[in-house]
Amino acid sequence: MSSVLNGFSVEKKIIDNMNEKIPKGYRFKKIRQCIRDMQATTTIKAREAKSVIIYPIRIDEEDKRKIHDIVTYNNSIGNKITSSDVISFIIEEVIEKKVRIRNTTNTSFTIDKSVYIELIKVLKGSTINLTFEEYVIHDYKHPDINYILSHKPKEKKTMPMLIDKSVLKIIDSIKEDIIKQKGKKISRSDLFRDIVNQMIFNFSNSEEEVVSLQKRILEEFDLLNNIGGEKEVEELIKLVQKKYAN
Questions:
Q1: pLDDT > 70: percent of the chain
Q2: Under a CB-based contact definition with an 8 Å cutoff, are residues 194 and 136 in contact?
Q3: Which of 1, 26, 46, 160 is the most exposed place for a label (fewest CB within 10 A)?
Q4: Contacts for 8 with CB less than 8 Å, ≥ 6 apart
Q5: What single string gives the DSSP state of each residue in 67-108?
Q6: What are the domain boundaries of the chain?
Q7: Structure confidence by residue, pLDDT tens digits, 206-228
């Protein structure tokens, strides 16, 4: 089922809180899962929101109907809410819901300095260790064994990290499987470099990154409209359609 970009008015402090606590690359996923888990009879109070921003997210028709049903139910019992109230409620639920209890330990990995810089750019302020843990648990399914065995950092950087012990167990299990399969000794850092390499690729091409770019483009269109008027915007749209038409 295809999804469509929708914008919801959400308090800036709620978005800032989510960006701080939910790792990049998992926010949309957790929001959509929360929508699907909610009952249409969930009671939500209307908000008197201040300092709101437009939060863009892609949702499909099924999610859109669920949001509409929640709004309809609440309006029927006297809670005059909007779809933005529903999304604000869901984001706060996502923030409050503890995904797992972490039992952490200090460790460190060796990585390319240039890759570390690229990782920081991609994460854009998200906490590295939490994002790394979520990626290992949910998305690291296909280790690149050739990369793991052959890649050595040109300019090394040691990354100290506070990591959940259960995540280290997953890493060690994958490491041991590769050792048995290839008969060659590898370290946690060898595996870590492949995980980070895949993270960077996936997050650079993630849905959140695409939506963020779409938002910036729309903001630039608004700026062009304010400076040059609708005619300039229409001419640019025609150029885009001509260039990218199938």
A1: 84
A2: no
A3: 1
A4: 54, 55, 57, 83, 84, 87, 88
A5: HHHHHHHHHHTT----HHHHHHHHHHHHHHS------EEEEE
A6: 3-96, 104-204, 207-244
A7: 555 566 666 667 767 677 677 76
Give the Cα separation of 209 and 23 in Å (integer): 13
Amino acid identity of 130? L
Residue 171 to residue 230: CA distance in whole angstroms = 55
pTM: 0.58
- Distinct helix (H) and strand (E) counts, the chain: 11, 4
Could you give the CA distance from residue 92 to residue 63 in angstroms, rounded to a whole number?
A: 17
Phi, psi dihedrals of residue 60, rounded to the nearest 5° = -95, 180
Q: How many CA atoms lie within 13 A of 37 on its CB side?
A: 10
